[in-house]
Design a protein that fits this description.
about 270 residues; alpha/beta; Glucose Oxidase, domain 1; 2 domains; two-stranded antiparallel sheet; globular
Length: about 270
Amino acid sequence: MKKNKLLKIMFVFFLSQPLMSFVTIAGDAIDFNKLNIIDLTHTFDANTIAWPTEKSGFELKPSFKGITKSGFFYFSNTFCSPEHNGTHLDAPMHFAEGHWTSSDIPVERFVGQAVVIDISHKTASNPDYRLTREDLSDWEKSHGKIPLDAIFLLRTGWSKKWPERKAYLGDDTPGDASKLHFPSYGSEAVSFLIQDRHVRMIGIDTASIDYGQSQDFIVHRLVGAANVPALENLTDLDKLPATGVTLVALPMKIGQGSGAPTRVIAFFP
């Protein structure tokens, strides 16, 4: 067997198991025409929602746009943003001293099989709802055991409120994070995902993996201590099936960063 063909086969094998049945090799490339590809990332612009205590938001300043002296068109901008702004990754070091920073996280952590649990029917009547161990048991009864080393995505339905800051965060008082109301993970459920299902990453379509009223940020501390990265402010999770999804989340590689803006995509049959 020729070396380049062997490499192609190894690459296909690397992809998560659900893709094995429909990802094919077409010429020199994988045939992605057979996949649904969903962007789970909010656009970064002046309306992007950052954590209330951040002193600045996303800023885009034009450097040059027009015809150069040499007669060709050229366009360039400068941008500035907090690490934890819009769709972004929380590195474990964000709440766990001595653990991985953004640039320390092994790149294989950013690609993997993903599962999606939908609790939007519960959050609709309770903005302070937290994922429970019972929710996980119910999901596994319907969809089977959560695969080991999977990426776990929690759909609350909150992304439909974006970019209305007060609706999304529950409060819009500048500099004050004490009056927020939005759903998220519960500590018991997260402990189970870390210890029993060994998740490689978790994500959510709200502003935090801790619910809005949290004061101790226990979920951040739990995943940080376990070196589990987290994705926040995802969108369009309603477009994903519960299983059979492969996720790719590529944060900006900020040296010694506590987090980073991230482009997140998912694909499935």
